[in-house]
Write a structure and sequence with these properties.
Number of strands: 0
CATH architecture of the largest domain: Alpha Horseshoe
Helix content: 55-70%
Protein name: Serine/threonine-protein phosphatase 4 regulatory subunit 1
Mean pLDDT: 85
Shape: globular
Number of domains: 2
Organism: Araneus ventricosus (Orbweaver spider)
Strand content: under 5%
Radius of gyration: 19 Å
CATH topology of the largest domain: Leucine-rich Repeat Variant
Low-confidence stretches: 1-6, 21-26
Keywords: Repeat
GO cellular component, one term: cytoplasm
GO molecular function: protein phosphatase regulator activity
Number of helices: 13
């Protein structure tokens, strides 16, 4: 339910990058650690933004997983509307969505929604904020449940594109984690589509790294996938 049509997704990301370029020229990024209240911005009515932020209020008995999921699903759109200069208005809400709270049940569904939109947030917020606020969360999601990290894997290339070259390199040793199910060994055997997506992403991200990095990290993964029992996985892996 968190996945967009591929053509619509590509179009959306292109529009985000155009908006991102225009925004970066006109408005600077907020200093690290700055706190902003809804009343500090004039993009949307402060009362409306307050209502959105209250969707993750753990003290509200009406708050449940579905409300939190709607909040997470809307986060990229709200971030795009406000612009990166007002990301501090949303930072605390983002942190709440990515943490287990006693009042939230089945929080993995919320993390799954965020995982599918991490690449969109990265495009909207740019390299600086992504490095500071998104990379730590992205790193944790790589080791999350398969139902969550599939969102990370499916959009891996789009996220890595936003990062600086030295930041991309830190994720190379983590790629083999996608070969093993975070749930159980039986899930890993059955979930061949997970391995297929990994093979397809290896093809895409190979252009983002230097040849030596490809040989040291991507080629060994591809050689493993070439031996897969599923034909579609093998065919995708030979393209790396």
């Amino acid at each position: 339910d968190s996945q967009l049509d591929l053509s619509s997704e590509s179009s959306l990301l292109r529009e985000m990058r155009i908006t991102d370029d225009e925004t970066s020229m006109d408005k600077g990024e907020p200093p690290p650690g700055v706190k902003l209240a809804p009343t500090d911005q004039d993009i949307v009515p402060p009362e409306l933004l307050v209502q959105y932020l209250c969707m993750t209020d753990g003290s509200n008995s009406a708050t449940d997983t579905e409300i939190a999921r709607h909040c997470a699903y809307s986060l990229p759109a709200v971030a795009l509307t406000l612009g990166r200069q007002y990301w501090p208005c949303l930072k605390d809400t983002f942190d709440v969505l990515m943490n287990e709270l006693p009042s939230f049940v089945m929080m993995w569904k919320v993390r799954r929604t965020v995982a599918f939109s991490m690449h969109q947030l990265a495009v909207i917020l740019g390299p600086e904020i992504t490095s500071r606020d998104l990379i730590p969360v992205f790193s944790r999601l790589i080791s999350d449940l398969d139902e969550v990290r599939i969102g990370i894997l499916q959009n891996l290339c789009e996220f890595l594109k936003v990062l600086r070259p030295e930041e991309r390199k830190q994720f190379l040793p983590s790629l083999p984690k996608f070969l093993v199910s975070a749930n159980d060994a039986e899930s890993n055997f059955k979930n061949w589509r997970f391995r297929l997506i990994l093979a397809e992403q290896l093809v895409l991200i190979s252009d983002l790294f230097e040849s030596q990095e490809v040989r040291d990290h991507l080629v060994p993964l591809a050689l493993t996938l070439i031996k897969d029992k599923i034909c579609e996985v093998r065919l995708a892996a030979v393209r790396v």
